[in-house]
């Protein structure tokens, strides 16, 4: 009778001859990770290999590395980082701080779900005929209706209130978004076209472009699925959340950088004022 084995198309381990619980060789999609890749491959090479099963071409690796730097720290004004900082100042364990950041950063208002929706929009735009007019391309990217692919597992998400990847609070595209898009426009046709028509797109929407839209276009050009892009977006934004949580934990609550919240119905003051 043979021993039961774990099956994965991603990872294969060969045990040591004298210890079946110790690994002698570990292969990721056929590549010897510790004997072949270690010291040669970059972190982004490993991530791309894990997600797609293929080693990235030099251009793909360079683009993914640039995107990783652009997304690494959303800054303390981002709700995801704010959540991590709140966890840090409360003295919670590291895992709790990262989970707080992931929970907030997963949403569809500038979070990973926004990337997921934007990548579906890009898939629709990419499927248009080559001679499709610009207006049809814009209409596809700016659609906000419930898409046909919405399945039961998406039922918990509210209807999108704005086109994915755009900022409903401002008609201005931030300089850092334009800088990122310009540098990443070599990623492929989606990113190139977004770079060419960014002003037309934003003018028609009346909203500015966000890094979510840039990330979605780049990830589509890299050949990732929307589900892969959603997961990768969460991963790539964690370093900043972790660093700010650690900083806040060391500084204490008296140096919490956010202004006080003025509650109109603060229960502490109910009955004390006329």
Give a structural overview.
It is built from 13 helices and five strands. The protein is mainly α and 274 residues long. The strands form two sheets. A three-stranded antiparallel sheet has the order 1-2-3. A two-stranded antiparallel sheet has the order 4-5. Helix 3 packs antiparallel against helix 11 and helix 9 runs antiparallel to helix 11. The longest helix has 15 residues. The chain starts with 10 loop residues before the first strand and ends in a 23-residue tail after the last helix.
N-to-C series of helices and strands: EEEHHHHHHHEHHHEHHH
CA-atom Rg in angstroms: 22 Å
Number of distinct beta strands: 5
Task: Give the overall shape, derived from the CA principal axes.
Answer: globular
Quick recap of the structure?
The protein is mainly α. Helix content is 50%, strand content 8%.
């Amino acid at each position: 009778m043979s021993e039961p084995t774990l099956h994965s198309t991603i990872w294969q381990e060969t045990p040591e001859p004298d210890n079946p619980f110790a690994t002698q060789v570990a292969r990721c999609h056929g590549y010897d990770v510790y004997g072949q890749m270690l010291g040669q491959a970059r972190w982004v090479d490993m991530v791309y290999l894990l997600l797609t099963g293929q080693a990235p071409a030099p251009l793909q690796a360079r683009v993914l590395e640039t995107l990783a730097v652009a997304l690494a720290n959303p800054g303390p004004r981002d709700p995801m980082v704010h959540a991590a900082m709140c966890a840090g100042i409360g003295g919670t364990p590291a895992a709790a701080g990262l989970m707080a950041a992931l929970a907030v950063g997963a949403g569809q208002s500038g979070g990973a779900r926004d990337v997921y929706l934007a990548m579906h929009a890009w898939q629709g735009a990419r499927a248009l005929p080559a001679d499709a007019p610009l207006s049809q391309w814009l209409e596809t990217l700016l659609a906000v209706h419930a898409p046909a692919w919405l399945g039961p597992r998406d039922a918990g998400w509210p209807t999108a209130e704005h086109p994915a990847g755009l900022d409903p609070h401002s008609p201005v595209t931030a300089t850092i978004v334009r800088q990122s898009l310009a540098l990443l426009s070599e990623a492929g046709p989606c990113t190139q076209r977004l770079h060419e028509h960014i002003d037309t797109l934003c003018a028609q929407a009346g909203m500015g472009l966000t890094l979510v839209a840039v990330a979605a276009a780049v990830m589509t050009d890299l050949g990732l699925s929307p589900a892969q892009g959603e997961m990768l977006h969460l991963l790539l934004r964690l370093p900043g959340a972790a660093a700010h949580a650690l900083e806040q934990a060391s500084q204490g609550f008296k140096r919490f950088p956010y202004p006080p919240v003025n509650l109109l119905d603060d229960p502490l003051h109910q009955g004390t004022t006329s």
